[in-house]
Prior knowledge:
Number of strands of chain A: 12
Strand content of chain A: 15-25%
Oligomer: homodimer
CATH class of the largest domain in chain A: Alpha Beta
Structural class of chain A: alpha/beta
Distance between the termini of chain A: 62 Å
Largest interface: A-B, 37 and 37 residues
Largest sheet of chain A: 5 strands, mixed
CATH architecture of the largest domain in chain A: 3-Layer(aba) Sandwich
Order of helices and strands of chain A: HHHEEHEHHEHEEEEHEHEEEH
Radius of gyration of chain A: 32 Å
CATH topology of the largest domain in chain A: D-Maltodextrin-Binding Protein, domain 2
Helix content of chain A: 40-55%
Amino acid sequence: MDLRHLRYFVAVAEELNFSRAAARLHMAQPPLSQTIKQLEHELGFALLRRTTRRVELTEAGKVYLEDARAILAAVDPAGDNAGRVAAGRVGRLVVGCVGSATYSLLPQLARRMRSELPDVEFAFRGEMLSPEQVDALREGALDLGIMRRPQDTAGLALTTIRQERMWVAIPQDHPLAVHEEVRLTDLHDEELIVHAGAGRSVMSGLVQDMFDEAGLSATIAHEVAETSTLVTFVAGGLGIAVVPEPTATLAVPGVVYLPLVDVPDSELVAATRADDESPVLVRALGVLAEIAGGHDQ
Amino acid sequence: MDLRHLRYFVAVAEELNFSRAAARLHMAQPPLSQTIKQLEHELGFALLRRTTRRVELTEAGKVYLEDARAILAAVDPAGDNAGRVAAGRVGRLVVGCVGSATYSLLPQLARRMRSELPDVEFAFRGEMLSPEQVDALREGALDLGIMRRPQDTAGLALTTIRQERMWVAIPQDHPLAVHEEVRLTDLHDEELIVHAGAGRSVMSGLVQDMFDEAGLSATIAHEVAETSTLVTFVAGGLGIAVVPEPTATLAVPGVVYLPLVDVPDSELVAATRADDESPVLVRALGVLAEIAGGHDQ
DNA sequence: TAAAAATACTCCATAGGTATTTTAT
DNA sequence: ATAAAATACCTATGGAGTATTTTTA
Lengths: 297, 297
């Protein structure tokens, strides 16, 4: 028994006339009669009571008609549902993001995703450190991470979003604040504010490495959890912070941003599980690439 | 697309291995691969991600699997449901009955039907006059009527249940009560109690006809609505009643039943709509025939 | 007698089989 | 090297067609 039998039976039951039903099904009448007979034989009971003049449903036929309609009504939407998933138009995606992109890239991404894929359920988690995101990705708690390129990339697929120039956030009344730009040597013996957990934040590790390579000593004055706190501390005159370019858009009274000219750019990457081919993810990466490109110009 | 595709896909999705799935489906592996590929082509998206070493479901595949399982799960029970209707094991039947059979035949029928067809919903309406039942049958308010053979049988199918001998119910202290049997002439000038509505009750019409044919005059002392009232009136000495045999089983103190020997038997019939071939009805008629037979012996 | 379902047969599309190749571990 | 999926090709069942007969209103 297959759907053909159900489709044919429904047509005959609705027309109550084999010839008309056959026409509706774009086929000849004899094979239709045959097929219905075959279905009845298979079921073991009559669905229709027929003379050459009148066709009518038996009680069993009425019941079977309802069930057949229900089954047929479930078949096409089944393909549609799965099709929408395949097209990445429905699904669920948890996106993590480092602090520096939380206030520039993430809101743009969220806005674009919600308007382009209204049926996709998104969860955004900002202010996550890169190693945190790597763990969360591996555990499945995160589907997409926006982070600094991490050390351990096993099982992950990384795509560069963009290179970000390094800047420093300086209190307005600091002697360096009048400069056009800053060199690493200018920061020698200055008090620095970094993200908490030297081993846990790629950014603070990066700052540490820069000083080590330059043979300079870094004085860590404060460790903070969030980027906004970092900048607030600078505004309060508690020290200087090295931040990636997008953070320099966080306009806070009392803070001046200057480019750090002699250090390499920091790479912002999108990380996913290497085996995750979810269509929603693919579309999210596409949107991300568009935003990154637009921002560079 | 037919159920074959769904069955095959579910098998592969559950085994995550084409060879094993093919074995489970009692077929070779190549046609299975072909069919799945064809299904994916038809849907326009991939259901499975496969290498020669590993087969896994895509996101769309997971969604389609759920829908496919739901559809397949709905297919077999569909036949079962209708099959039970075809076998007359589920359904609904409204049975009407004349007063004289309400207390003997109807309870037996109800008991037998409820035990043999527990899933059939029965409604029994006793104390219905025959013409009332004929109208109710035609309107569809009744599916089966147990009645005296009516005049107008157009569109109805009648089957005789049994012939019932006529008896008289006489007050204990009446002179006739000491007889062994009664003749119609004995009732000349006696006061009679009959069912209400001469034109509406076949039984009272029958009594009237008997007297007319015998050239006797019937004195209608009372008209009542229910058979139990009829007998109660007799017990109260308000007159004599002509009743069919089964009513004589209604033992009421002060009432004596005697056979009425020189009148024809009354025919009790089962009436249905001629075009009603409901399996439940067929089974009900079968049960009715059995009960009638058993009662005759 | 006329309209519609059933029967008789014919054909070809395709479901399924066998043999073999490709591919990834 | 091997296990498993894909490819190539073949066979035959049965779905659908045409022609005809049967049935009932």
